[in-house]
Amino acid sequence: MKALHLCHKAAGMLLAVLLFSAFPFFSRAGAFTEGGCDGDCMKCHALSEQEASGILKKTNLAGAKIMGIRLSPVKSLWEISLENRGQRGILYIDFSKRFIVSGPLIEVASGADKTKESYEKIRKRVDLSRISLENALVMGDRNAPRKVIVFTDPD
């Protein structure tokens, strides 16, 4: 009985070795190529603004305005920058267009928050040097290193 059990074990191991040794042959023919999309995901995958809007309409982000779509730092995810009710944000849609992922993408090697880096690029910033202070009512030192600018509408 023990000899039979060992033969089954050996046959199972032999089958596993054969399957793993044949994997490189089969992987060349399908989606498991080394480069995956020949290294350029945009050749095989696309996500239009219209498609992304359609996906978001199925969620509580139906009114969100898409500001940009690009490949994320993680292969197989699209990075979507959007504005919803005056708030800007980042979320991810997978290549199958079946899943939305929200939250930070952290690069393990560096510890960098890739989502935060992308968010900083889309965050609203005002270039204060472009605001003319010529007709402004200045309180305090006109050349102070920090300024507070208050806008009012007298009408």
Number of domains: 2
Given helix and strand content, the structural type is alpha+beta
> What are the low-pLDDT stretches, counting only 5+ consecutive residues below 50?
1-34
Strand proportion: 15-25%
- SSE string, helix = H, strand = E? HHEEEEH
What CATH calls the topology of the largest domain is: Nuclear Transport Factor 2, Chain: A
Can you walk me through this structure?
This protein is an alpha+beta fold and 155 residues long. It has 2 domains: 2-29; 42-125, Nuclear Transport Factor 2, Chain: A (Roll). Helices cover 28% and strands 16% of the residues. The chain contains 3 helices and 4 strands, in the order H-H-E-E-E-E-H. It has helices at 2-27, 49-57, 114-122; strands at residues 65-71, 77-84, 87-94, 100-101. The chain has a 4-stranded antiparallel beta sheet, with helices on both faces. The radius of gyration is 27 Å and the shape is elongated. The model is unreliable at 1-34 (pLDDT under 50).
What's the structural blueprint in terms of helices and strands?
Elements: H1 2-27, H2 49-57, E1 65-71, E2 77-84, E3 87-94, E4 100-101, H3 114-122
Antiparallel strand pairs: 1-2, 2-3, 3-4
Can you describe this structure in just a few lines?
The chain has a 4-stranded antiparallel β-sheet with strand order 1-2-3-4, sandwiched between helices.
List key phrases describing it.
single chain; 155 residues; alpha+beta; 2 domains; four-stranded antiparallel beta sheet; disordered N terminus
